[in-house]
Amino acid sequence: MRIIVADCSAVYSGRLNAMLPRATRVILVKADSSVLIFSELGSYKPLNWMAAPCRLREYGPDSERWESLVRDTYVDDDPDDAEGDEEGSEPVRFLRATAEKGPDILTVAIYRVHSDQTFDLGSDPGLVKDGVEDHLQRYLAEQIERIGEGARLIRREYPTAIGPVDIMAEDADGTHVAIEIKRHGGIDGVEQLTRYCKLLNRDPLLAPVRGIFAAQTITPQARVLAGERGFECLILDYDDMKGRASGDLTLF
Questions:
Q1: Can you count the helices (H) and strands (E) in the chain?
Q2: Contacts of 231 (CB under 8 A, 6+ apart)
Q3: pLDDT interval class at 141 (50, 70, 90)
Q4: How far apart are CA 105 and CA 187, in angstroms?
């Protein structure tokens, strides 16, 4: 992982065109060549990024492409205040990430470097869900009829190219159902389910795939977004599911 704190601007071109004027930001360069640009304030999400698979090149002033890079990434925020000979007014290097599939290109112009460090993070075991969320997944898999009478479990942690779907099932009509489970359901969970369903529906052996967003609590915003995406929301009663799984008798 390479972490660069620098004064930079960025231009993204391709299927989407976007521009970041010059400011001090954090640039993360991952081992897979992904590039993510963050600001200190605002959303935790990157301002702009290029995800893998992509090719990453770094250019210095001696590069044959230097003049074209300067021209293509020039952002004139205030031309009246421009000082061509002021220190830091010209880029000192460029990072250019090009998508392996598609026309997308992210070019980052770096004007002044405050810190540039590389760390070997080693292998990552991946996300380990908290106990309640893992139990919710297991209980719902065992009690799959909660999504509808006649439903059938296909698999927990159904693998896809962008990560495993919590539960893949089939309803009484034979339609595949992708289920995303959260302890507390928010908009991010709905977005995650959207990505899964979009990918799964590309497979003619699975399509059509409908989505269910399941959680102990679901925010009003997430409910609205789920409805707009055509997803069903399912509230999970952890105590009731746990009681059924254990076979314990309960008064309520």
A1: 5, 12
A2: 190, 193, 194, 197, 210, 211, 212, 213
A3: very high
A4: 28
d(CA 56, CA 50): 10
The pLDDT tens digits of the residues spanning 77-130 come to 444 444 444 556 889 999 999 999 889 999 999 999 999 999 998 887 776 655
- Contact (CB, 8 A) for 84 and 111: no
Residue among 189, 175, 174, 172 at smallest CA distance from 234: 189
Which strands, in side-by-side order, build the sheet including 165-170?
152-158, 165-170, 176-185, 209-218, 232-235
Q: Which helix (H) or strand (E) holds 242?
A: helix 238-246
Q: Please give the backbone phi and psi of residue 134, each rounded to the nearest 5 degrees, phi first.
A: -65, -40
- 65 phi/psi in degrees, rounded to 5: -95, 5
**Predicted TM-score (pTM) of this structure:** 0.52
**Cα 181–Cα 184–Cα 189 angle in degrees, nearest 5:** 55
